[in-house]
């Protein structure tokens, strides 16, 4: 059982990190959420695994460690607040920058406007990002 | 001896006065500036009898004792002499500056900076602690920077200020290093201890390093070759500043350092070679360059460099008489050079130029100034009966005896005579070119006149001092020099007699040769200038600026190479570091598996784990199809919730599942504003690289989790399990921890939640976004009938469940967090099923007040326990018998939990509702569909 848990945590972490390394914002948010699951499970497992042992006095013979559970409970709620905040930032970012890339330098460099200052950024966003770094779609 | 402290503090504190008095007018400003200086001067003069009697006055207040830093001051002969120069000339400069400054110049700023500098300089000379000395040393560099850049509109002033700060600041850093090493060698930062440990320091292996570092500090400050180039550019400062900082006081800080640390550092061959060599080079170079300057202040600047070289050279010779001569020349140079700078300022002020090629015949218009300047220049050239003559004679006498350079010992006197010849020549040029010769016609037309009466007074006082010291040396300065030399040498000063005539000896012959040489050089000055103009010399300013800009470019390139603005790259580096650091420590760790007995695997859990991993990988594989990826992500969240349930964490399972619903609904809404599909354009190599990194980090985390889970548990949770019922009045330990034991943490967390909600609200407020590729309001059948019908009766049921979950939370799985999320989900369902406009019309709830009242309720519960004399958030509980429901245990923690509930509901709805409302079709448009 411990091995199953450890492997699951590892898979969640790996998937989360892979998504966080993507070039566009939405996968990064999904990656953050996935990493959040992994971290929550990791913290939870610090109290070791136990079945049929809820930390409610009088309902079971033995009790699972309640402290990591309390920590994870608030972590879940705070994680939601953070995800929501990041999502709002990317919506605003898309509105302001007119694209949804994590980096816009990548595209600037390819289009030779990197030296010309920030004001060119939004204007210089290409219809089709030609960069090898970015995974993109033709812009609507 | 608090008087000493006041000598230091008066100018520093007084620096506020001119700023406040600036509105009262220029006379008030200068008058209030001079007051603290005069009081400090009086206090200093009050200590004169004690100092002349050979006493060392000390004053020590503790400061940062652990660092060895104390506010320790000392007044001995050497520091008294310097303090007198600083305060005395300071008074004269303030008077002069009052007339010099233009009405448009800000007098308040000028005088405040001047007083700041004065305090800093006094701090340098009065410090009895090495670290304190460095502190004030840096302060002199900074105030000098600000004063050079006083006319900051002028690019030359800015560049000169920057150069001075770069050079003297770098020297200050070297000095700090040197002082730290000195303190390390001696074991104390007290000046007295260091000076007494001279033999120990000179024998130490670090001595050469310490010496070089301290000398770097001294040479940069005193503009010694090869660091001399900043001083001429500092001449863009107002002339009173040049007279005060860059000839009389600040540039003397370097030679002061040589004098102060004489007992600790001097006396080795290395000291002799370095100090004498640098002094000699500076002496000659400064004197020759001064001859080629056409600007009056430029001439005086290089002359100052040359005279500082002379003083340095004397300290390098390291004989008691050379020390006396050096101290004597410090006093003499301060008097004649300050007066010459003031004269140059008067000429500039009255004619509008300082170029000697344009000036001439000024004695007809400025007769008094001409006389004063001539006497001062005579002192500079070393004319008999003036003070400069006496110290120069002593200097010549010492150079003849110098044996620092072994067989090359004649080098010192020869260079000394040549430099003095140049000194005579440029002094002559200063006087003859400006005051004599024919008057140029432009000047005759302008007809300049003598300056205000009191502008000349400072010059007069200084020139009278030149004459008095020159004629009655023993009476004027004999006693002072003796105690100053004693303090410098750390042993009784040699007996000396300052007389004008001591026979036709070598020194006098050298003086005469120098005078004649000077006349010859002056005679051939045109040829010399013509030769000089053909020299391929570069303006050092351009060299310096180019070097600084080059450094900046290199720095920028290095920085851009690492910090290139790519967040993706930062993320990569961060993750690699997070992996490599623990990995390097754990690489050879043999104990990955602990001793705890493993739990058997049951098939249901195995299937659950498989679904979890498969949906996670599926999310990654399909992340370009965002909606599909999101659905799979929600499956991951669901499986995580089930995992919590399986492993005895019902509270977590309830929380996870309700948060999951809220998050996925929220992300669905967000996806409306983002592209639905994002094709893959990453290169194959990049994908493999990212997968590799993700894989190894995931494997590392899995290994760590495994290592922990297989170990026996040693937890502090026993306390919570035991105390939950008697201390917290609840059987659900997780909830009791949240609202009672760790209630303060929970309070912090709901505050964060509230802040995030408000932040999101303000980010979205007033925003109108169209979804990409879809004009607003084109959704077909936005609210399916079945959804609408089902969602409406769900609301009361869900609210009843939420109430139940909330009430039982203290004893059974549930509580404020979970109840709040269930309520939010129930309301969100109405948004989804019936539309934003429909729901908001019926939901008469303003989220902001609810949010605030929830936070306030939680806070009030905590504060309430203060009323009963308990610490913050102490809970009380009791049993209440309620008809129908039975025995209910009520705890104040439930009030706190109610606060949590309100914050969670309102924050969640604030976030979702706001995002929903910007995506909503405006009401009028909806009606028309």
Summarize the structure.
The complex is a heterodimer of chains A (140) and B (929). With 140 residues, chain A is mainly alpha-helical.
Q: Main β-sheet of chain A, in a few words?
A: none
The strand count of chain A comes to 0
Radius of gyration of chain A: 21 Å
- Please tally the β strands of chain B and state the result: 4
Overall mean pLDDT of chain A stands at 77
Topology order of chain A in helix (H) and strand (E) letters: HHHHH
Q: Identify the overall geometry of chain B.
A: elongated
Low-confidence stretches of chain A: 106-140
Query: What is the share of helical residues of chain B?
Result: over 70%
Structural class category of chain A: mainly alpha
Distance between the termini of chain B: 92 Å
Topology of helices and strands:
The complex is a heterodimer of chains A (140) and B (929).
Chain A lengths: L1 H19 L4 H21 L20 H32 L7 H7 L8 H5 L16
Helix pairs in contact in A: 1-2, 2-3
Chain B lengths: L1 H13 L1 H6 L4 H21 L1 H5 L4 E8 L4 E7 L1 H24 L6 H20 L3 H19 L6 H32 L4 H6 L1 H6 L3 H15 L8 H4 L5 H10 L3 H9 L1 H4 L3 H23 L4 H22 L2 H32 L15 H15 L5 H15 L9 H25 L5 H6 L6 H19 L1 H17 L16 H18 L1 H10 L5 H23 L4 H20 L16 H19 L4 H21 L3 H22 L12 H26 L7 H12 L4 H9 L1 H22 L20 H24 L7 H19 L1 H7 L4 H21 L9 E6 L3 E6 H28 L3 H6 L1
Antiparallel strand pairs in B: 1-2, 3-4
Helix pairs in contact in B: 1-3, 1-6, 3-5, 3-6, 5-6, 5-13, 5-18, 5-23, 5-24, 6-7, 7-8, 8-11, 11-14, 13-18, 14-17, 16-17, 16-21, 17-18, 17-21, 18-19, 18-20, 18-23, 18-24, 19-21, 19-23, 20-23, 20-25, 21-25, 23-24, 28-32, 29-30, 30-31, 31-37, 31-40, 33-34, 34-35, 35-39, 35-40, 36-37, 37-38, ...
